[in-house]
Amino acid sequence: MNFPVWDIGFAPGILIAVVATLHVFVSHFAIGTGLFLVLTERKAYRDNDQELLDFLKRHSLIFILLSVVFGAITGVGIWFVIGLINPAATSSLIHGFVFGWAIEWVFFIVEIIVGLIYYYTWDRLDRRSHLALGWVYFISAWFSLVIINGIVTFMLTPGTWLETRNFWEGFFNPTYWPSLVARTFWSFALAGVYALFTASLLKRGPFRWRITRYSGIWVLAGSVLTGLSLMWYWNAMPESALIAAQGAIPITQNMLSYFYVLSIAVIAIVAVTSLLIPRFNYTPVALIVALLMLGVFGATEWVRESVRKPYGITGYIYTNGIYPEEVDEINENGVLVWAKWISDDARDSKDPVEMGRQVFRVQCMLCHSVTEGYMGLNHRVRGWDKEFIYEVTGVLDSLRGQMPPFVGTTAERHHITEYLHTIAGDSRDYSSGKEVFDDRCGLCHTVGGYRDIVPMVEGFSADDLNETFLLMLEELAGNMPPLTVNDDARIMLADYLANLSAEEVE
Ligand code: HEC
Ligand code: HEC
Q1: Sorting pLDDT into bands at 50, 70 and 90, what band is 342?
Q2: For a substitution probing ligand 1, which of 318, 355, 364 has the most ligand atoms within 8 Å of its CB?
């Protein structure tokens, strides 16, 4: 690895998520509002509706400010953040798509310049030319999506690019079209969300109700079409992504439920406060709808990012910057030799805990923090003994988190064990069999979901489980770590498991 590690003290995924969500939100909004402006402007000319034109003029001011300023700042922000957090994958993306990025940049410049001219030439240009500018704005904004969508979807489903390394095969990959269509419709819904906000600033009266209804239709129609195209997108996803979303990765599962709940909330609120009773579209309501929509975006992008685990680019580079083809070599020579930015002192340290800390830094810290917080490992490994930690690090790639495998020598695996054991602290007591299950089995199994434990223990009595099964986990299928808890805890677990299948039988 040619890059240093950025130690920010918390899981960097949060930072990427925040910056990326804001950027994606603003850039979709810019595309949708481009279309909203031209279609509505054309309608205003056709109906000779001066009130509507005045509204659009104000609408376009806040819009240009937001999309140009915020779009540019968050766009640079994304490069800054992913470049520091995940330099290897970022470098692959830049090298693979130099011309893609260059073209995207050209469209972005056109979008900004034309957007500004569009705003300043209301009333100064003849109607036809002004409308034409609006179309140029919308099309160049949409073309940035056409380009960047190829690169973003490539990361999840590179398709035949993996064998051919052909630019176009990577670009028009298996999820390219469904994602493009979904994002396009989504931008229309977002245009409506923004228009609901500017409508809420109008003087109360029939014109305002009319604009509110009109904007609400953009939100609802856009959302329904997005929903349908997301289903198409879903069907184009690889099997591994579906497994992750259907319960393997707990966070993905949570995000998916946020997506459903927030989407339904947006649709329900907008249906009531725009279509049914437009008087109810007060400014705070419109802002809440915008915030909820931001939440929908955040959850969706989060799901899309997380189902790609353990890869940064599926099948090509792991999330933590290690290429699968390097793994054998690293296992032989050691991960600290491979990581060029580790200081020689640390590499030659005779202190196993310090060496383990470095091993952790180079291959785990991209996703985990050593805290109690988001993706923190402190509470997850609390009370684990060395044997269990060592065995778990050997099977990281079969845990629910869909992690990359541990890489490095056996000695390094012992070092990271020593380090994680300093975090784990003293052994813990369990107060119920469920607690033992959550701590020792829950990292790979669930009850009733992914790798369901219920059918696996069905028909066994508590005694069978306690006296034979649980003592020989490492000899069964599945590469399981041994159960290294004391007898009391094992008896509780056996009772818990035996009752699970008993309940099922009833
Ligand atoms: C690509 C991101 C990623 C990397 C790299 C990664 N992990 Fe994980 N890890 C996860 C996810 C996701 C989970 C599941 C967490 C959850 O949602 O509860 C997880 C779970 C775990 C758990 C189980 C916690 C539990 O009790 O359920 C352990 C232990 C762990 N990781 C250790 C490590 C170690 C050690 C490394 C480095 C050798 C590492 N991880 C590298 C993403 C990663
Ligand atoms: C490192 C991940 C991991 C951990 C931790 C783990 N398991 Fe498993 N377990 C697996 C896998 C993988 C399989 C094989 C699943 C399959 O065949 O679909 C499996 C299979 C099983 C089976 C069926 C075995 C057979 O041969 O029929 C049982 C029973 C089981 N696990 C119980 C447990 C219990 C109890 C715990 C906690 C004490 C546990 N497992 C912890 C990964 C794990």
Answers
A1: confident
A2: 364
